[in-house]
Amino acid sequence: MKGILRLKNVLLGLAPVVLALLFTTLILVAVGAPPVEAYRNILSGAFESWQKIADVVAACVLLILCGVGMSITFTAGQWNVGVEGQIVLGAIFATWVARNLLWPQVPVLTLMLLAGMLGGALWGALAGLLKVYGKVHEIFGGLGLNYVAQGLAIWLIFNPWKPADGATMSGTDPFPDPAWMPRLGDLRVAPLAVILALLSAAVVYFLLRGTRWGLELKAMGKNFRSAFLLGVPSTPRLLTAFAACGALAGLAGAIRCSARYGRMLPDISGGQGYLSLLVALLAGYRPQWVPLIALFFAAVGVGSPRLELNMQLDSSLGGVLRASVVLAVMLVGGWRALMARRQETT
Amino acid sequence: METDFLVQTLSSIVAAATPVVLASIGETISEKSGVINLSLDGSIALSAMAGFAVAFTTGSVTLGVLAAMAVGAFIALIIATASITLRQEQVAVGFVLTMLCMDLADFLGNPFVRKPGPSVVHWPIPYLSEIPILGPILFDHNLVVYLSLLSILAAWWWIYKTQPGLKLQGVGERPESAFARGVNVSRFRYVYTVVGGALVGLAGASYSLSIKLGWSHRHTFGIGWIALAIVIFGGWSPWRVAAGCYLFGLLKALGSILQRNPAFAAVPTQIFSSAPFALMIFALMLVSSEGVDRLLALLPTRLARRIDRAIRGRPPGGLGKPFVQG
Fold first, then answer.
1. Average pLDDT score, chain A
2. B291 interfacial to chain A (CB closer than 8 Å)
3. Is A299 a member of any domain?
4. Predicted model pTM
5. B246-255 — which CB contacts under 8 Å span 24+ positions?
6. Is A19 contained in some domain?
7. How many CB pairs under 8 A join A and B?
8. Count of domains in chain A?
9. Which of the listed residues A38, A218, B125, B266 has the most CB atoms within 10 Å of its CB?
């Protein structure tokens, strides 16, 4: 009996994934594409070679850092949608260091990462300040700041940081060698970045679980008013939560321009911030689950451009798959709770 | 000559504001009932794509507009089901749907990118369009633009002047009391969320079939978020929401006039493209920050009270909160 129950739970746990796959399969059938071939393309696009696997791991880094960061703000009950702009600001600050300080590798890289964290933290704190003192809901403050950060990045690339042969959407000149984060041989993945990402997940896990700060954030997230009445200093806690999430996002931005592109791009965040919000939602705001979910998201992201190359389909199918998994988890979860309530009343 | 230019500019503002007006009136209706439809940006994109795709393949603009409205209504139905029946967080569902619809619009719209297609026909209203000044500004457009004007009037009349509208306000403000009075809160919320969603779908159609013809990647650039912010800025009242939309349109038109002026050639275009979003933040601060209260306290009391009433709005009491019926 117990075994059957457990089997039932596993099956129900898989139901959202099955539903999401069913949905994307329907979409594929609707446009007249063979679904199995599409999924095979995504899979082989993500795992067929060491280089591809390295790309998946590299893509994971950003999702982990931001997803973990967002577990902090979500724990405090805040929707830090501004994470996209915080990545951009991190990249901008790191780029400034890379272009202006021509030092050896270790100090330059350290400073780039710290500067990135500072930039992201400032931009995150700004969204928090707007919320606390301007009474602007963090979704609107964050989104607005995202577009402003985007404008700032494009302006910098097209004006003061213009390459000698004219500005284009392909970004600034490559950084000087010391500002490139060392990669693992020929693979496009920087081991240091992976270590930092996993470390951040561990640190945030313990911060949220084992410190007063984490506990106070949790209290604020559960009931903001009563936490305040019980003496939680809500304004500083809120601002530090935003700044901490921003710092991690900024670190991600610095890593992205140093380890992945070796330059600043106008579209440096490329929607990854919004994506990591989905990661955090799916992880239920628990940092320990973020890396696993980030891996799934990153694999789909790295694999789906194959659809364009081999099948003339738009790669946004990957995004449809990821978002529909999250939606299905919510709907199935709600449905199960509804059934449980019905059973109770009868 | 001068008045001609002014009339022309105002007329183009009325036309260009169509999607924002339709979307924010739709959102006002569903938020009045207590449900936040956060998916606007994605809903508009997907319905714009669907409207254009259907009009392109069938050759019928009417079918395109109807398809767009159906898409908007269906997304709203998902939000209603998830938040009312399944008790999930409205904002979370809305955000996920935004992302889902964006990607879906890109994927399904791929074959239609930058194809020339049909559009809503220009149709000046006989007699009315001949009124001096007002005629060309309001009545020299197409049917979708007239629908946007009509939606403002209809929303105001329905919410404030009819029996069901009164109940709608009750459902949004105090669902417990409305329920105690025998109103089926859940059903009201379902209906108005879906009706609002259909208007959002119409906003999408107005984009691809009237304002910015056709379909392309990021076709509706951030307009849904602007519409959501304008609902707050307009204090959940149709007239003020509409005023916010046209004010936004006016500022945008001024921006593009400035941009063409050689004196501002040095100002980078990126400033102009992110300006609306900076403006969004400032506008929201203006209507809700406590700093403004302090500034108002410096003014004579009567004037301060009047300004306060003009710019401040209060969200419906039950907005975004789940209500368990029965």
1. 93
2. yes
3. no
4. 0.94
5. B246/B13, B246/B14, B246/B17, B246/B21, B248/B17, B248/B20, B248/B276, B248/B279, B249/B13, B249/B14, B249/B16, B249/B17, B249/B20, B250/B13, B251/B276, B251/B279, B252/B16, B252/B276, B253/B9, B253/B12, B253/B13, B253/B16
6. no
7. 142
8. 1
9. A38
